[in-house]
Structure formats: C-alpha cells, structure tokens
Design goal:
single chain; 148 residues; mainly alpha; Arc Repressor Mutant, subunit A; 2 domains; two-stranded antiparallel sheet; two-stranded antiparallel ribbon; 45% helix
Length: 148
Amino acid sequence: MQSTAWGAYKGIREALRARLVGGEFQPGDALPSEAALVAEYGVARNTVRRALDQLAEEGLITTQPGRGRLVSAPNQQSQPAQPQYQRIAAELRAQIESGELAAGAKLPSESGLVALYGVARGTARQALAALQDLTVSVQGKGRFVKPR
C-alpha cells in the first residue's frame, strides 16, 4: 500500500483483488463491512468505498441492499450488475405484460416482495415504484394492475 493518502485506495483495491482472486472469498461470500475494512487498512471510509466501487466496476463484487458487498460468480464478472429492484420490477412487468397478472390483479406488497426475494424493504419499494406506469395504488388496499 502507498504511504500517502493520495492513491491509498489503489493499494486497498489491489490487496482486496488479490484476496478475491486468491480464493480467500468464494462467489456469494460477503466481504467484510466498510467499518471492518477501515479498521483493517487504517484509512477513511471514503478511501475504502472508492476501492470497493472500482472492484464493483470491474465486476469482481456486487452490492446488494440489505446484504452488503458480495463476491461475484465468475460468469457474472463480465456482466454489469443490475440493481435488484430493476430485476424484480422486470419480472413483475413481464408477468403483467404476459397476462399472468391481469388487469385488476393485486401485486405482492412490499413485505411480500421482501420475503419472496430476500431484499430490503427499500428495494421492494423501488421495484414497485418502477411499475407506476402499469399499476395503481389504492390507499389501505395495496397496488393493482391498471386496466389497459
């Protein structure tokens, strides 16, 4: 690692890359938290974040809300990571467009999506918000597929 703060993230990035490639972490494993890495490397949180962001850009790790940063599987490393809420919204959109979820059908609640996909509540909320063009929210009743 470099002795100055300038470029320290590069040293951390390389050290983490070596640990990833060396097999210390397996695909799907969670990396240590930012706080743990800050303590381990003795740098500011933003320095750690910058190193982690670059590893994510390279496809070596992914960030999953509610789960943290996970090691990517080798076949995932060449694909840019799609946010989970977009994947969930795309699956629900496909169900609506295919007619599996017909007009007037109730969509799963935020809590239902949290349980079904194992994501954070905010992720489920984002997925439902991404479907506003196809759904309508009824206060106290839930979210339903709009008539076409």
